[in-house]
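INFO batch 0412 | record 1 of 1 | parsing
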Amino acid sequence: MMKMNNEELKSFLDDKVLQYNNPNFIETDPIQIPHLFKVKEDIEIAGFLAATIAWGNRKMIINNAKKMVALMGNSPYDFIMFHHEDDLEKLEGFVHRTFNADDFRTFIKALRNIYTKHEGLEGIFTLHKGENSLQGGISRFKSIFFEIEHLQRSRKHISDPLTGSAAKRINMFLRWMVRRDNVGVDFGIWKNITPSLLSCPLDVHSGNVARKLGLLTRKQNDARALQELDEQLRLLDKNDPVKYDFALFGLGVFEGF
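INFO prediction complete | emitting tokens
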């Protein structure tokens, strides 16, 4: 494609944000799962679980995320806080790729610990946010999440940026909770974290588009690539850099850019 200067690139991407950052986006995206709920805790728990299994076929992701909340009686927070052991037995047979019923039970117990002892998901990320990024906070979150007795196999389902991961799924979850888009897609219910700290959920689609646009030179989609992309997107909009996730993802998935 023709090389664009910074002003042209920003204009091009801003137009793509407007095209994809609208309620129609919800219909084909896992963000529809937390949109099933009205209560803050239900939204963030449903969002966290949906983001946790957000890899692979998108239709399968959405269907299995719906199964997860159905198994929780469509009341995620109440289930987390008040479940009994026999309730957890009913989760047997759930599976999404490598995330199985044992992982699901581990996550439920970890979430109860977080809401009981750490002021919830928002509390942890608010306390451990960095000055320029949430990536260190994600690493700290993983440590706290698994402070309970847990299955070692479940650890792989939460990424750690400090070990080199781009942490795509949890960065996507944080976008949902923190970013205030005023059009009804991202929730913006976490008020104590500024959207300027968010990082783009870097995956195959957004990474490939970013490279074609000259926003990213590193070939691997890892923590170093995420830092490079973050720096470029913050030059385009320092207050709301991850709005460009809609542009990069939309260009890649819907336009085959």
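INFO post-check: Residues 62 and 177 are 18 Å apart (CA to CA).
INFO record closed
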